[in-house]
Each structure stands twice: as C-alpha cells, then as structure tokens.
Hints:
By secondary structure, this protein is α+β, with helices and mostly antiparallel strands. It is built from three helices and eight strands; from the N terminus they run E-E-E-E-E-H-E-E-H-E-H. Strands 1, 4, 5, 6, 7 and 8 form a six-stranded antiparallel sheet that branches. The chain has a two-stranded antiparallel sheet with strand order 2-3. Strand 2 and strand 3 form a beta hairpin. The two termini are about 30 Å apart. The model has no long low-confidence stretch (mean pLDDT about 85).
Amino acid sequence: MSFVPGQPVTAVVQRIEIQKLRQGENLILGFSIGGGIDQDPGQNPFSEDKSDKGIYVTRITPGGPAEVAGLKIGDKIMQVNGWDMTMVTHDQARKKLTKKKEDVVRLLITRRSLEEAVKHSKGSHPRQ
C-alpha cells in the first residue's frame, strides 16, 4: 500500500493490543521495525512500489508479546496509541513504541492480506 504525502489515506486496518513483557527494567514488545521518512524506501522489502516510507514490522520474536497479540512480519503500522505513524522518522517510531511508562501498546496496522480480502469481497458481491 502506498500513498501520496499530504493526501488522505484509505486503508483497511486492524487493531492490535500488545501487553509488554517486563524483564527487569526493560519492557519487551517482541518485534522490530523498519522504514521511516528518513530511510531509503527502495530497501523496504514490503513496499510494493518501492516509494512507501511507512513503518513496517520486520521481525517477530517467536512466542513473544507481539506474536501472541497477532502482529505479523510485513504489517504496516499506521498508529501507535493514537499517534499517526505515516510520516515519522525511524527513530520517532521507535521512541513511540518503547515508552517506558506504557505497559500496553495499541496499534492500528494494515496488511496486504486484509486489503486483498476486502477487494475480493467487494468483487464477489455485486451492488444492488
């Protein structure tokens, strides 16, 4: 999914709530991200047209909080706890996700399979 900066975005989204795992002083989410407006979108393996500078999930820890919550590799993070993530740097995204005072992270994500399911359902049910 790509978009033009400054233009409205239409996306099929899913809410995912991740309860951070406490390990000593650290709060663990169990996933890594890639992307951001300061990164080269050509290096993003999840960008269809290699121009998308969004934040994507690049790694999931097996059995970790993110996997348990249903997050998947390739998911595009649209919001974190209500904050827009469509036009942020990689570091800004990382900081929003890893705030020490937040035990729960609420994400709005989109994924290719969600988009495809909606396109398929629209095509299989003609409008009356």
